[in-house]
Design brief:
The chain is mainly α. It has 11 helices and no strands. The longest helix has 25 residues.
Length: 248
Amino acid sequence: MLPEFTTAQWLLAIFGAFCIGFAKSGFPGAGLANVLIMAHLFGAKESTGVVLPMLICGDILSVFAFHQHAQWKTIWRMLPPTLLGIVAGWGLMHWLTKAAYGPVIGWIVLGLAALQGWRRWKPNTFEHVPHSTTFGWTMGGACGFTTMVANGAGPVMTLYFLARRTPKYELVGTMAWFFLIVNVIKVPFSVDLGLIYSNSLLFNLMLVPAIGVGIFTGRRLIKLVSQDLFEILLLVFAVIASVRMIFF
């Protein structure tokens, strides 16, 4: 049974699915829009399980498009701290009440939006971060925590790759494989929390075409346009929506 959405809510859901595909093709700021849209439609905590199969679908399509550019040494290096972050996030989700979860998601997305905004305005800040093991484990742990709690780790990993001066296509290809593995690992944790169920899977299936369109559009545009204006608009939206989740 599908959600009883209005036409406007279905259009919002379709746009959220499009943003998943768009984010997976090299425009990570778009992922924040999807987090907030789905939290609005389903509730902050429930949305994390609803979105996860859609993210996996987006990851598979992204791997198909960019798999040849992946850096496997980076993937294996980042998986252990990311797994620890996932476990920490899973533990927090068991503990938090529904009333508290909205503000937590809001603060996480607001923080990610701030990081993404800073990355756009002052990219040189991250180019000089040392390539240390401590930095890698810190970013991996933050990635695991934010992806488990809010499905919003794209900006965290983008900052990590910027610090390592990773070329654009290698960044997209590595993130495609990395998040496919990470999101599959998250499935049993989300099932344990009761956040993935048959009705949500039917909803996911309905939105697969929108994810594909997002991937296709992003893949075409990544060669042609700057990300600046698009990400600025999405970041403004993310800030406004995050403040609403925190205070209202």
